[in-house]
Amino acid sequence: MSRLMPRQPVPALHVPTVGGDDWALAAQRPERFTLIVFYRGLHCPICRTYLGELDKLAGEFASRGVSILAVSSDSAERAATAREQWGLGNLTVGHSLGLDVARAWGLYVSSSRGKTSIGIEEPAQFSEPGIFLVRPDGTLYWGNVSTMPFARPHFREILGALDFVVKNDYPARGEA
Question: Is residue 100 in a domain?
Answer without folding.
Answer: yes
